[in-house]
Amino acid sequence: MTLRAGVLAVQGDVSEHAAAIERAAAAHDETAEVVEIRESGIVPDCDALLLPGGESTTISRLVSREGIDAEIQAHVDDGKPVLATCAGLIVAATDAQDDRVETLNLIDATIERNAFGRQKDSFEAPLDVAGLDEPFPAVFIRAPIIDYVGDGVEVLASWDDRPVAVRDGPVVGTSFHPELTDDSRVHDLAFFDSVQA
Predict the structure, then answer these.
(1) Residue 80 belongs to a domain with what CATH number?
(2) How many domains does the chain have?
(3) Does residue 177 carry a catalytic annotation?
(4) Is the pTM of this model over 0.85?
(5) Is 17 a catalytic residue?
(6) Of the listed 86, 102, 112, 187, which one is catalytic?
(7) Tens-of-pLDDT digits for all 197 residues of the chain?
(8) Which terminal residue of the chain, N or C, has fewer Cβ atoms less than 10 Å from its own Cβ?
(9) Is residue 98 classed exposed, middle or buried when 0-12, 13-18 and 19+ CB atoms within 10 A define those classes?
């Protein structure tokens, strides 16, 4: 099987995410075709989607302007997996607590932007993630915090008693940047566990 994974290529670590997806596929003796999404018409042909970090207001503006937002919502309605990281998590949530961000309402959660501080407050921490045998080396950079999750949302990991990784149906959201390590287990958890289910 070849997984066709679309990465929203507005900002963020597109190449790093692509490499992580390819490593996760290889671990399953499968291949991944990674395509960059900058316009409408690409999402409907994707098996999985990735919403990377960057600046959430810029990301939300582009997906709305290009009509990609409705395609992403249809992708999730079809039960196809999405991984949303850092700013991608903010855009995927129901409430970004910022009127400038047009959220996609994919994860029933309220997010506080930059809750872990500025760039200089970035840190790495070993994180216990549900479904993973060993701690994940999570990299937090100007990371958002999940203030609230709805009843149907599974908390996959917490830091300082606050959720930092969640799953809502086929959508996994993380406050941290899983692509900034050589560990592709979060991409595996988001995509291949969902694809095989």
Answers:
(1) 3.40.50.880
(2) 1
(3) yes
(4) yes
(5) no
(6) 86
(7) 789 999 998 765 688 999 999 999 999 999 999 999 999 999 999 999 999 988 888 899 999 999 999 999 999 999 999 999 999 999 999 999 988 999 999 999 999 876 555 555 578 999 999 999 999 999 998 888 899 999 999 999 999 898 999 999 999 999 999 999 999 999 999 998 765 43
(8) C
(9) middle
